[in-house]
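For practice. Any example?
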Amino acid sequence: MKPAKKVLFLLIISVASFIFLPWIRHAFGDANYPPLDQTVRWIYLAVFAVSFLLFGSLLFLERRSGAAAVSFRKKLLLAALIGALLVTVAPVFSIDFHCYTMQGRVMSMHHQNPYVAAPDAFSGDPFAAGIFWTHRVAFYGPFWILISVIMTFFAQNSVFLNLILLKLPLYLGYLLLVHQGYSICAKIAPEKKHIVASFLAFNPFILLQYLVDGHNDILMAALAVWAVNLVYERRYIPGYAVFTLSVLVKYMTAMLAPFLLLMAFDRLDRKTRIYGNVLVFAAVFITVTVLAYMPFMGSGPGFFRDLASRKLFFGAGGVDSNTLPYAVLFVSQKIGFLKGMNIFHPPGYVTGVFHLLFLVCGVSIFMWALAAKDRTAGFFSAVSLVFIAYFALEGFSMGAWFLVWLLPFLVLSGIRRNLTLAFLLSVAGALSFWKRLSFLLTACVFIYLLILILPRRQRPVTA
């Protein structure tokens, strides 16, 4: 058995041990999300350290040898098996999954509009006690809310069925991400396809955040990558429809729209069809969006007005500590500017400056992508840079699960040492229960820049 296959076998055993994470927490009587008991945290830290050591070794061995540990079919089968095991595990670090359940039950069990009625109106519901933001109406996209409604309808009051059925689309999204990531990499960079497949299929961070904790970002990211693959294959209408569904899970992939159209323009046989393609995109996007929102429109004409008033992309205006905007405001106060200002809740014009900086970065990245000789290769780098700029310049409290917006595009990009950066970000995301994510991401950036600066060791040339 070759070394990479041995490491893969050990890695599968290691990530399979995640099924014991809830048991460990309960054994020490810790019911917090994430766990606060120091013994539990150190045990988790040891488990994740072993998993990432094996995961990094697998990537290194596959890259050094240039050969896959096993065929892609076997990798996909292993991903399906380990994923099927982990979806049975209750969330450990986050209660977001319980919020999905309750928001679905607002319509499936209580026959109310989840975009209008908040969970606190149904305090007698057996699932209401498991969530924190009881006063907030649904803020996810209608495609995800419809999934939640359907799954909770069939699950009824069974805790186990709600866990399995609501994680089913996330499990399918995980497999879709692995398959589509491999598929598009085989077209644009076939020499990296096996490493990309391993990264997406066996990444402990992905398995932990999206199959154990059950964050819906994995479905949004998977649909976005599938949409890119369809557009690359010149299947524009299905590609635009799938992209719209991605946006209607959690909205954030809407930032990709200009770059997706740019890829489409580059793939067109006749450049005179550009305007027609834009109209097709707009027609598909509007049609799918209206159809998805239709079940929720019964609350009257104020529905879309209320929906439009929500700050989907730029948060609620506050600034979280340990973010770049907070650091800028903090230093500004120390040197004599902005005295007396509450930097956690600054005036709108202050946060507006950072929003404007992000928009300027986004436009600059788009212009760079527009001028690139190979727009297809530049697409993944441009999208990665947009998400990095968004994470850096917005002052919201960032959840580790947001990283899946970036990771699939980063490993497919042409950014230098992209796999190293993606690995470091994955480690930071997995360890965010232990230390604040902003500190871990700062350390990742420092290590990554240090790796870029250090000279690469040349392999000896053999005769």
